[in-house]
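Following up on my earlier thread - several people asked me to post the actual chain instead of describing it. Fair enough. Here it is, all 257 residues.
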Amino acid sequence: MSVARALTFYLPVVLMAVSLLAAIGIGSLFFLKRSGEVRANRLYGGLLLAGGLTQLHFLLLFTGLAARYPALEFLPIYFTLWLPVLLFLHVKISLYPGYRMRLGDLKHFIFPVAQLLFFVSLWLIPSFRRPEGRYFYSPFYGGLEQALYLVIWPAYIIFAYQYLRRRRAQLRRSSLPRLLWYLRKLLKGSMLFVIAYAILALSDFISYNYFFVDMHDQPWYAGAQSLSYTVLLVWLSVYGFQVLLWGRRLLRSGTVD
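Reply from S.P.:
Thanks for posting it. Predicted structure:
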Protein backbone atom coordinates (compact mmCIF):
# COMPACT_ATOMS: atom_id res chain seq x y z
CA MET A 1 0.00 0.00 0.00
CA SER A 2 1.50 3.33 -1.07
CA VAL A 3 1.68 6.36 1.19
CA ALA A 4 -0.39 8.40 -1.28
CA ARG A 5 -3.13 5.76 -1.27
CA ALA A 6 -3.15 5.69 2.52
CA LEU A 7 -3.44 9.49 2.79
CA THR A 8 -5.98 10.04 0.02
CA PHE A 9 -8.23 7.02 0.57
CA TYR A 10 -7.80 4.99 3.75
CA LEU A 11 -7.29 7.93 6.10
CA PRO A 12 -10.41 9.80 4.88
CA VAL A 13 -12.44 6.56 5.05
CA VAL A 14 -11.41 5.95 8.66
CA LEU A 15 -12.12 9.54 9.69
CA MET A 16 -15.46 9.55 7.91
CA ALA A 17 -16.47 6.28 9.58
CA VAL A 18 -15.42 7.51 13.02
CA SER A 19 -17.32 10.79 12.63
CA LEU A 20 -20.36 8.88 11.37
CA LEU A 21 -20.44 6.59 14.40
CA ALA A 22 -19.77 9.46 16.80
CA ALA A 23 -22.58 11.58 15.36
CA ILE A 24 -25.13 8.77 15.45
CA GLY A 25 -24.09 7.61 18.93
CA ILE A 26 -24.05 11.08 20.50
CA GLY A 27 -27.16 12.16 18.59
CA SER A 28 -29.10 9.17 19.93
CA LEU A 29 -28.11 10.06 23.51
CA PHE A 30 -29.64 13.53 23.09
CA PHE A 31 -33.07 11.91 22.87
CA LEU A 32 -32.45 10.47 26.36
CA LYS A 33 -31.04 13.69 27.84
CA ARG A 34 -33.22 14.99 30.66
CA SER A 35 -31.45 18.21 31.59
CA GLY A 36 -32.13 21.29 29.50
CA GLU A 37 -35.02 22.00 27.15
CA VAL A 38 -36.36 18.73 25.75
CA ARG A 39 -37.19 20.15 22.32
CA ALA A 40 -33.74 21.72 21.99
CA ASN A 41 -32.17 18.37 22.93
CA ARG A 42 -34.20 16.51 20.33
CA LEU A 43 -33.42 19.06 17.66
CA TYR A 44 -29.70 18.70 18.30
CA GLY A 45 -30.04 14.94 18.41
CA GLY A 46 -31.85 15.10 15.08
CA LEU A 47 -29.08 17.33 13.72
CA LEU A 48 -26.39 14.80 14.61
CA LEU A 49 -28.40 11.83 13.32
CA ALA A 50 -29.09 13.63 10.04
CA GLY A 51 -25.43 14.61 9.81
CA GLY A 52 -24.30 11.05 10.47
CA LEU A 53 -26.62 9.57 7.85
CA THR A 54 -25.49 12.17 5.32
CA GLN A 55 -21.92 11.15 6.09
CA LEU A 56 -22.91 7.55 5.34
CA HIS A 57 -24.08 8.74 1.91
CA PHE A 58 -20.73 10.43 1.31
CA LEU A 59 -18.90 7.33 2.52
CA LEU A 60 -20.78 5.11 0.08
CA LEU A 61 -19.80 7.45 -2.75
CA PHE A 62 -16.21 7.89 -1.65
CA THR A 63 -15.49 4.17 -1.27
CA GLY A 64 -17.09 3.35 -4.64
CA LEU A 65 -19.82 1.16 -3.13
CA ALA A 66 -22.48 3.37 -4.66
CA ALA A 67 -20.88 2.91 -8.09
CA ARG A 68 -20.86 -0.84 -7.60
CA TYR A 69 -24.42 -0.93 -6.26
CA PRO A 70 -26.15 2.12 -7.84
CA ALA A 71 -29.28 1.86 -5.72
CA LEU A 72 -27.25 2.80 -2.62
CA GLU A 73 -26.77 6.31 -3.96
CA PHE A 74 -30.49 6.94 -3.66
CA LEU A 75 -31.01 5.74 -0.11
CA PRO A 76 -33.10 8.43 1.66
CA ILE A 77 -30.25 9.35 4.00
CA TYR A 78 -29.11 12.60 2.39
CA PHE A 79 -30.09 15.54 4.63
CA THR A 80 -27.87 18.46 3.63
CA LEU A 81 -30.76 20.93 3.64
CA TRP A 82 -31.95 19.78 7.07
CA LEU A 83 -28.72 20.50 8.92
CA PRO A 84 -28.72 24.33 9.07
CA VAL A 85 -32.44 24.44 9.90
CA LEU A 86 -32.05 22.01 12.81
CA LEU A 87 -29.04 23.92 14.13
CA PHE A 88 -30.92 27.22 13.95
CA LEU A 89 -33.98 25.88 15.75
CA HIS A 90 -31.82 24.24 18.41
CA VAL A 91 -30.15 27.56 19.19
CA LYS A 92 -33.41 29.50 19.08
CA ILE A 93 -35.26 27.19 21.46
CA SER A 94 -32.23 26.90 23.75
CA LEU A 95 -32.25 30.68 24.09
CA TYR A 96 -36.04 30.95 24.38
CA PRO A 97 -37.37 27.77 26.04
CA GLY A 98 -40.85 29.23 26.22
CA TYR A 99 -41.09 29.65 22.46
CA ARG A 100 -43.80 27.63 20.75
CA MET A 101 -43.60 26.71 17.10
CA ARG A 102 -46.01 28.65 14.89
CA LEU A 103 -47.53 28.13 11.49
CA GLY A 104 -45.00 30.55 10.02
CA ASP A 105 -42.16 28.27 11.16
CA LEU A 106 -43.22 25.71 8.57
CA LYS A 107 -41.40 27.76 5.92
CA HIS A 108 -38.10 26.53 7.34
CA PHE A 109 -39.00 22.97 6.41
CA ILE A 110 -40.04 23.49 2.78
CA PHE A 111 -36.70 22.57 1.25
CA PRO A 112 -35.75 19.92 3.85
CA VAL A 113 -39.05 18.03 3.55
CA ALA A 114 -38.99 18.34 -0.24
CA GLN A 115 -35.46 16.88 -0.26
CA LEU A 116 -36.59 13.94 1.87
CA LEU A 117 -39.59 13.27 -0.37
CA PHE A 118 -37.33 13.53 -3.42
CA PHE A 119 -35.06 10.75 -2.16
CA VAL A 120 -37.93 8.61 -0.91
CA SER A 121 -39.52 8.79 -4.36
CA LEU A 122 -36.21 7.89 -6.05
CA TRP A 123 -35.74 4.97 -3.68
CA LEU A 124 -39.24 3.60 -4.13
CA ILE A 125 -39.61 4.29 -7.86
CA PRO A 126 -36.33 3.50 -9.68
CA SER A 127 -37.66 4.85 -12.98
CA PHE A 128 -37.46 8.37 -11.51
CA ARG A 129 -33.68 8.13 -11.17
CA ARG A 130 -31.37 9.84 -13.62
CA PRO A 131 -28.50 7.73 -15.00
CA GLU A 132 -25.92 10.34 -13.97
CA GLY A 133 -27.28 10.51 -10.42
CA ARG A 134 -26.67 14.14 -9.48
CA TYR A 135 -27.54 16.79 -12.03
CA PHE A 136 -26.86 20.49 -12.00
CA TYR A 137 -30.40 21.91 -11.91
CA SER A 138 -31.66 19.68 -9.11
CA PRO A 139 -32.42 21.72 -5.95
CA PHE A 140 -32.24 18.55 -3.85
CA TYR A 141 -29.26 16.61 -5.25
CA GLY A 142 -26.96 18.44 -7.60
CA GLY A 143 -25.34 21.74 -8.42
CA LEU A 144 -28.30 23.87 -7.40
CA GLU A 145 -28.61 21.90 -4.16
CA GLN A 146 -24.96 22.65 -3.40
CA ALA A 147 -25.60 26.34 -4.06
CA LEU A 148 -28.56 26.27 -1.66
CA TYR A 149 -26.40 24.47 0.89
CA LEU A 150 -23.71 27.13 0.68
CA VAL A 151 -26.26 29.96 1.01
CA ILE A 152 -28.56 28.46 3.65
CA TRP A 153 -25.83 27.38 6.08
CA PRO A 154 -24.29 30.86 6.61
CA ALA A 155 -27.74 32.48 6.54
CA TYR A 156 -29.11 30.32 9.34
CA ILE A 157 -25.95 30.69 11.39
CA ILE A 158 -26.30 34.46 11.08
CA PHE A 159 -30.00 34.25 12.02
CA ALA A 160 -29.13 32.16 15.09
CA TYR A 161 -26.37 34.59 16.06
CA GLN A 162 -28.84 37.47 15.91
CA TYR A 163 -31.10 35.67 18.38
CA LEU A 164 -28.08 35.09 20.62
CA ARG A 165 -27.16 38.79 20.58
CA ARG A 166 -30.74 39.75 21.30
CA ARG A 167 -30.92 37.33 24.22
CA ARG A 168 -27.69 38.62 25.68
CA ALA A 169 -28.94 42.21 25.44
CA GLN A 170 -32.11 41.20 27.28
CA LEU A 171 -30.10 39.67 30.12
CA ARG A 172 -28.07 42.88 30.59
CA ARG A 173 -25.01 41.25 32.11
CA SER A 174 -21.41 42.35 31.78
CA SER A 175 -20.26 38.72 31.52
CA LEU A 176 -21.67 36.11 29.19
CA PRO A 177 -23.98 33.42 30.65
CA ARG A 178 -22.41 29.99 30.24
CA LEU A 179 -25.11 28.60 27.95
CA LEU A 180 -24.81 31.61 25.62
CA TRP A 181 -21.02 31.28 25.64
CA TYR A 182 -21.25 27.67 24.48
CA LEU A 183 -23.82 28.47 21.81
CA ARG A 184 -21.62 31.27 20.49
CA LYS A 185 -18.70 28.86 20.21
CA LEU A 186 -20.93 26.38 18.41
CA LEU A 187 -22.00 28.97 15.83
CA LYS A 188 -18.50 30.38 15.29
CA GLY A 189 -16.99 26.94 14.79
CA SER A 190 -19.76 25.88 12.43
CA MET A 191 -19.33 29.00 10.31
CA LEU A 192 -15.58 28.43 10.05
CA PHE A 193 -15.96 24.87 8.76
CA VAL A 194 -18.80 25.83 6.40
CA ILE A 195 -16.53 28.47 4.87
CA ALA A 196 -13.82 25.84 4.34
CA TYR A 197 -16.35 23.59 2.59
CA ALA A 198 -17.54 26.53 0.48
CA ILE A 199 -14.00 27.33 -0.69
CA LEU A 200 -13.56 23.76 -1.95
CA ALA A 201 -16.98 23.74 -3.63
CA LEU A 202 -16.35 27.06 -5.39
CA SER A 203 -12.89 25.90 -6.49
CA ASP A 204 -14.48 22.86 -8.08
CA PHE A 205 -17.09 24.99 -9.85
CA ILE A 206 -14.55 27.48 -11.22
CA SER A 207 -12.06 24.84 -12.35
CA TYR A 208 -14.74 22.81 -14.12
CA ASN A 209 -16.55 25.67 -15.83
CA TYR A 210 -13.61 27.92 -16.72
CA PHE A 211 -10.58 25.65 -16.89
CA PHE A 212 -12.37 22.41 -17.90
CA VAL A 213 -10.70 20.51 -15.08
CA ASP A 214 -12.83 18.12 -13.03
CA MET A 215 -11.45 18.33 -9.51
CA HIS A 216 -13.31 15.17 -8.53
CA ASP A 217 -10.85 13.24 -10.70
CA GLN A 218 -8.06 14.34 -8.38
CA PRO A 219 -7.67 11.96 -5.41
CA TRP A 220 -6.41 14.71 -3.11
CA TYR A 221 -9.44 16.89 -3.86
CA ALA A 222 -11.96 14.12 -3.20
CA GLY A 223 -10.21 13.45 0.08
CA ALA A 224 -10.11 17.14 1.05
CA GLN A 225 -13.79 17.63 0.23
CA SER A 226 -14.85 14.62 2.27
CA LEU A 227 -12.70 15.77 5.17
CA SER A 228 -14.19 19.29 5.11
CA TYR A 229 -17.63 17.89 5.89
CA THR A 230 -16.09 15.38 8.30
CA VAL A 231 -14.46 18.15 10.32
CA LEU A 232 -17.80 19.99 10.54
CA LEU A 233 -19.49 16.80 11.74
CA VAL A 234 -16.72 16.17 14.27
CA TRP A 235 -17.12 19.72 15.57
CA LEU A 236 -20.87 19.25 16.04
CA SER A 237 -20.28 15.90 17.72
CA VAL A 238 -17.62 17.26 20.09
CA TYR A 239 -19.94 20.08 21.09
CA GLY A 240 -22.71 17.56 21.67
CA PHE A 241 -20.41 15.41 23.80
CA GLN A 242 -19.50 18.43 25.91
CA VAL A 243 -23.16 19.26 26.45
CA LEU A 244 -23.91 15.68 27.47
CA LEU A 245 -20.93 15.54 29.80
CA TRP A 246 -21.45 18.92 31.42
CA GLY A 247 -25.11 19.44 30.57
CA ARG A 248 -26.24 20.33 34.06
CA ARG A 249 -23.42 22.81 34.38
CA LEU A 250 -24.59 24.63 31.26
CA LEU A 251 -27.92 25.34 32.89
CA ARG A 252 -26.47 26.95 35.98
CA SER A 253 -26.39 30.71 36.29
CA GLY A 254 -22.59 30.76 36.07
CA THR A 255 -21.00 33.14 33.62
CA VAL A 256 -17.90 33.34 31.46
CA ASP A 257 -15.97 36.60 31.23
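The chain has a mean pLDDT of 85. That should answer part of your original question.
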